[in-house]
Amino acid sequence: MTGAPHARVRVLGPLQVDDGDGPVPVGGHKPRTLLTALLVARGEVVSADRLVAALWGDAPPAGALAALRAYVSRLRGVLGPAAPIHHRPPGYCLSLDAATLDAAEFEQRVRTARAAATAGDHARALADLDAALGLWRGDALAEFADEDFAAAEAARLTELRMSATADRADVLVELGRAAEAVPELEALVRRHPSWERPAVTLMRARYATGHQAEALAAFHELRARLGEELGVEPAAPAQALYRRILAHDPALAATPPPGNLPRRASRFVGRDREVERVTAALRAGPLVTLTGVGGTGKSRLAVEVAARDRGRFDDGVWLCELAALPDGTPVGDAVSAALGIRQRSGLSIEQTVLDYLRDRSLLLLVDNCEHVLEHAARLVGEVVQRCPRVVVLATSREPLGVEGEQVWPVPPLPLEDATALFVQRARAATADFRLDPAAADAVATICGRLDGLPLGIELAAARMRVMSPVEVARRLEDTPLLGGGRGPVARHQSLVAAIEWSYRLLPEPEQRLFRGMSVFAGGADLRAVHRVADPQATEDDVLDRLTRLVDRSMVVAASGVHSRYRLLETLRAYGRSRTEAAGEDTALARRHVGYHVEFAERAGRGLQGPDERAWAAEALGVYDDLRAAFTRAAADRGRDLAVRLVAAVPELVHLRVGYEAHAWAEQLLHVVDPDHPLYPAAVGAAARGAWNRGDFTQATATARLAGGRRPLPGTARIAYPGDVLADVALYDGDVDTALGHYTAEAARARADGDRIRLVWTLYYVAVCQAVRRRPERGLPAARESLDVAEATANPTAQSMARYALGLVLKKSDPDRALALFDEAEELAAAVRNFWWQGIAMMEAAATRAVHGDPVVAARALVAVLAHWDRVGDATQQWLNLRYVARLLQRVAATADAAVLHGHLVAAGKPSPLGPAPDAPRGDPRAAEAAAVAHARAALGRIVSGHLVTGTA
């Protein structure tokens, strides 16, 4: 390690020293003790006597000082100049010059997180806290925590870790993610029963998730503990919160405006005037389009404007990125996925988006429209015309051409801002970058040659790790950039030349990897980059090259469970042009399709196993490339690969994204050989899509294409054609046919040992018995389903089984049913299984509406209305509206109940308030919208205490 410029020292766990290539041996117990004693002193001088005592205790050997000097010498060889040990009478001190200490980084991130939380940026606070807590690998100073010299520091760090964990729980509650905070808070309360802070946050979190009784119980348990152990009452914050919970303070259930804006990874530089002017334009009209060449900073400016202006939109700010879409394709599915909504029965995906947005107040940021300009312009134009409280901020290399559009060309950065950006990115590349006068002149030259284009400036600044500003400026002088700021064409050519310059500076293996990465639509992890972009290299070599590309700002890295790497769209377009010029594009696309088909099959299996949550998170991150892989496979008539992909993805897409993949299946049915072994699964996926759209005639006709053939074992739960036929029968009132099918399928699954299939079929047996009003007959199936689900450890299976058991128990044992529904909701939500989350939420709300606190029930039913509004399941929404009518009747809101009854009748739906009179039928979609609006208002009156009773 000697001579290495950087080092990393870790004490949040076992002591470890890393250089650029990994851990280095520190030595035995004595050198490790010496290093720890110096680290604990935090740069202060530690006397030789104290160091001797730390090494040998009260009985040091005769040559202790000489041995100490030998250990110091050995450590100097290990640490090198990055962390020099200095002799300073009367002892030694350790300087972390070019080294980092994980404990110091942890404390800095916690401070940053707390500052962000204080400023209201809870998303950034959460990211910083996750990064801080992720540094811990075990107990602080684990080997030495009991030693006198380290005990106080170990205790301090441990307490800070505990406090940061509590900070994280607070932030989750502020972000409206209270359910995620509850397990951690319960653990903190168990470990620290007299610490009031986590107990208070636990009260808030339980109340925010609809568990008022449990929230009050947390207070009573805290009061009992404090009384027994300390003889005191809870402090004022706990008592005040207790009173607010008793009073059903609406602010406790409030959540921040929704949205999906990304966290800003670095400080926004300059453009204050542009931010003000674009914000003013947004307030003056419904559509603003930021235009300019690639790399001019359109997207970054748009995100900054949206973040600063989000407070005026009740329904939040939503970013829809179109860059990953194939050229010229429709944009409806991408917009719906960004909004988190699904196609509604009887509507196209574009109509669904418009219907959802019609009455909402939100800012829709549509990014990178140029390659899908016609489709983007059409949908945005409809939004502008038909959604009066929606404002659209778009980015494109050319205007959309929509009526009412304000076109705002994004100018290059002025010299002062360009210089500030260069310095920021240069310091990210090398912390000791200084802007002395010579460097300032060179940076000004660089920014001028690059026409003030942010992407070009960032590429040049990344070179500061290995070059000086003067050297970069000289290189650019020798490069034929057009420069001069002569309009967008000149600036575009300047940027292309800057990218070309950066590309040519790369060694050939890095050029090859960069070209290969242009095939990915949405980025990739290391394994995918290796397998697709450069399979001839070793994975370690690919990682080294990726690291260097990230260092040079040619690739963007995003950390997570699996780090992911992507090219900015301008760089990706350049990379694609290079692959075509090199004749690599066909082979590259073939590897991309093959890899993602195999990934989809692995993910499909993983989603049915115990690691469903991890697979869901990973697969959702790959969705853009799954779409691109299908498009390529279908275009190349690679029908085997296309049908394999279609058979693999329903478990991911249908339950978590939307119904787009069902259209893929429909596209294949008439071109794939019906004898293909995966044909029944493709039929099942297509039939399920028609069923979700409410087109039962099409669903039946499609399902029958399978000719009674069953899919292969392990097929996604929703892709069985026979199940679709049974579900159509069930919704048509033919319960016996559905029950007969699922009973036979359960016997088959039991005989085959297919536990996932058995849970599904037993679930439906229980549901059928509940629909027949014989829930006691469904108890054996529901209990068996739960036993089998527990053995699978699959969260969706466990959620389904709990729902089934709750459904057949909700009349005979409502408390037990309510607990089961709540557990089912949490299990489904944890794996982003929106459909099962919704039905569990709904049955829990319905049970509370009959047996629980009406205010809590009203809040829960409002949440269910919003959920089915997003998911787009009209069948479930009408069922939920029946539950709302029952609650209104229970609390004597008879006028509101009568209005809702009228909407149910108008749509031809059964009403719990009595048989439907002879009345003209209206448009079901209009009736649904009116019913949901009235239900939401009536429930709001229950929550606020302004209940209106009496007859209509």
Task: Give a structural overview.
It is a single chain. The protein has six domains: 1-175, Arc Repressor Mutant, subunit A; 272-409, P-loop containing nucleotide triphosphate hydrolases (Rossmann fold); 415-504; 584-720, Alpha Horseshoe (Serine Threonine Protein Phosphatase 5, Tetratricopeptide repeat); 733-833; 853-952, no CATH class. The chain has 952 residues and is an alpha/beta fold. Strand 2 (16-19) and strand 3 (22-24) form a beta hairpin. A five-stranded parallel sheet has the order 9-10-11-8-12, with helices on both faces. It is built from 43 helices and 15 strands. Helix content is 62%, strand content 6%. The chain is globular, with a radius of gyration of 31 Å. InterPro entries: AAA_16, BTAD, HTH_77, OmpR/PhoB-type_DNA-bd, P-loop_NTPase, Sig_transdc_resp-reg_C-effctor, TPR-like_helical_dom_sf, WH-like_DNA-bd_sf. Keywords: DNA-binding.
